[in-house]
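Moderator note: this is an archived Q&A kept for reference. The question asked for a predicted structure of one protein chain; the sequence and the answer are reproduced below.
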Amino acid sequence: MGVQVQRRLFTVEEYHRMAEAGILSEDDRVELIEGELVAMSPIGSRHAACVKRLVRLLDRAVGERAIVSAQDPIRLGAHSEPQPDVALLRYRPDFYASAHPGPEDILLIVEVAETSADYDRSVKIPLYARHGIPEAWLVDLLEERIEIYRHPTPQGYRSLHIAHRGETVRPTALPDLELSVDEILG
């Protein structure tokens, strides 16, 4: 007979108190996913360059219509505060100074993966769907493609489109914004 292990899940408030108490520092690369502290993958230079390209492309294209957020926390319920690589947020004059953006504020989330594609695909993308994020992109640097997830349900996204080099992608929330897969991948 196996031993039953009781896991202790944390809330977002407890996660914040750990940082305030110095248990977690800004140098700790962790995020809260479904109540568990998860170590984030190290950021390689190709990953970092892709995030910078996305921020520049999106920022130029959206202007004042939205806010481009890079590797900042978003709040998804009481037990999750991931830090997606890029989030396109509804414009707010306070730039979310009063609280981290929640699902209702998010137009698009982009995760860039060099070594974490399987984790992002099996954990983070379904998490975004469960919280009603309308669209999530997974930029898979190894496969050189962008997976576009749309139509969230509690069981996951109902729609998946894969875009390859030579194609363009458009966020549903801003359909006039067209980005080249080649520009994003570099």
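Archived answer notes: The first strand starts at residue 30 and ends at 33.
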